[in-house]
Design a protein that fits this description.
The strands form 2 sheets. A two-stranded parallel sheet has the order 1-2. A two-stranded antiparallel ribbon has the order 3-4. It contains 4 helices and 4 strands, in the order αβαβαββα. It has one domain: Glutaredoxin, CATH 3.40.30.10. The radius of gyration is 14 Å and the shape is globular. The protein has about 100 residues and is of the alpha+beta class. The protein starts with a helix and ends with a helix.
Length: about 100
């Protein structure tokens, strides 16, 4: 999914949008190598070196990747979307934010 995530981050760089990744690799160094190789520019949090880390546990993640789309209030509005559906959901929430102003 890295190519799609890169394009989404680039397309929305001037919007109030954040992509946050959670890394469940065994060590931060494994992720660092992947980040360099895959040109990951968005923030990523280390989840303790396990797929059962505190973040995955709290958010009830059972498969990877798991995608949550949160609105400006931090409410989960979409889960498990990919590709075009993910982009449409993000665009929908950004449009809602602009209307709220």
């Amino acid at each position: 999914m890295y190519p799609h995530e890169r394009s989404l981050v680039e397309r929305l760089k001037d919007e109030k949008f954040t992509l946050l990744g959670i890394d469940s690799d065994k060590t931060p160094e494994i992720y660092a190598d992947a980040a360099k190789r895959e040109k990951i520019t968005w923030p990523v949090m280390f989840d303790g070196g396990s797929v059962h880390g505190p973040i995955a546990t709290q958010w009830q993640v059972t498969g990877w990747p798991t995608i949550y789309v949160l609105d400006s209030k931090g409410v989960i509005r979409f889960k498990g979307l990919r590709d075009k559906l993910l982009e449409e959901a993000v665009d929908e929430l950004l449009a809602e934010m602009k209307k709220e102003k």
